Amino acid sequence: MSADAPTVLVDLSQGVLRLTLNRPDRLNALTEDMHLALRAGLQRAHDEDAVRAVLLTGAGRGFCAGQDLGNRDPRNWTEPPDLGQSLERFYNPTIRLIRRLEKPVVCAVNGVAAGAGANIALACDIVLAARSARFVEAFAKIGLVPDAGGSWTLPRLIGEARAKALALTAEPLPAETAERWGLIWKAVDDAALLDEAQATAQRLAAGPTRGLGLTKRAIQAAATNDLDTQLDLERDLQREAGRTADYAEGVTAFLEKRPPRFTGR
């Protein structure tokens, strides 16, 4: 790959903003430039009405191998690095952007998703993985703790026992097992991954964007809300959804027995 090639490829088509991690020679390991480019793409999804869904994937034979350790050689340290600062400056803003984006984020995991790469994928709303893909919570191999939201996401998706085992052993988890455990939405044939992920993103992009975004907000809030708080939130969000043009279009289309033409408003 040329040194001048962008570290994240960005393409907007039919309402889907495709963000492709683009360091295939390094299994898309994350650098500071790559972090900033990915964050810029996600911010664009926040800012532009033309973006109605996001598709995140990786170029080449892997999704993302996590942090690029090439410039973190302890033999060159004058003092240990502040990895908390790295999380605060780069990883945490990205995870927050994905979670707060009130538009669907689809992730297509090809090949390995390791360390922070795995946890960035799992922060997305709908995760599809090639059958050959593997998820690796690789932090234990270098004496670190899961980051990029991994310690929050894993136990919520698969329970404490499995989350601890994945994090403490760093054993690779095959895509089909990840699907069976409920860690991801679906494992698909390798050759079909991008087509199916693109079709999923396009279907969501053609949907009622405001309602989908409010649904995402409600489901994410349920992890920490009690029932009464969640009922109140559903009331408030449904009030907001009921005032959208997409709700009016959806009901009209149902009554007229035709497909709805949502506009995302």
Largest sheet: 6 strands, mixed
- CATH names the topology of the largest domain as 2-enoyl-CoA Hydratase, Chain A, domain 1
Q: Count of helical segments?
A: 10
> What overall form do the CA principal axes indicate?
globular
Low-confidence stretches: none
Describe the structure.
This protein is an alpha/beta fold and 265 residues long. The chain has two domains: 8-205, Alpha-Beta Complex (2-enoyl-CoA Hydratase, Chain A, domain 1), CATH 3.90.226; 209-255, Lyase 2-enoyl-coa Hydratase, Chain  A, domain 2 (Orthogonal Bundle), CATH 1.10.12. The protein has ten helices and nine strands. The protein has helices at 32-47, 83-100, 116-122, 150-158, 160-169, 175-181, 193-205, 209-221, 227-241, 245-255, and strands at residues 8-13, 16-21, 53-58, 105-109, 112-114, 126-130, 134-136, 173-174, 186-188. The protein has a six-stranded mixed β-sheet with strand order 1-2-3-4-6-9, with helices on both faces. The chain has a three-stranded mixed β-sheet with strand order 5-7-8. A hairpin with a 2-residue loop joins strand 1 and strand 2 (16-21). Helix 4 crosses helix 5 and helix 8 packs antiparallel against helix 9. It is globular, with a radius of gyration of 19 Å.
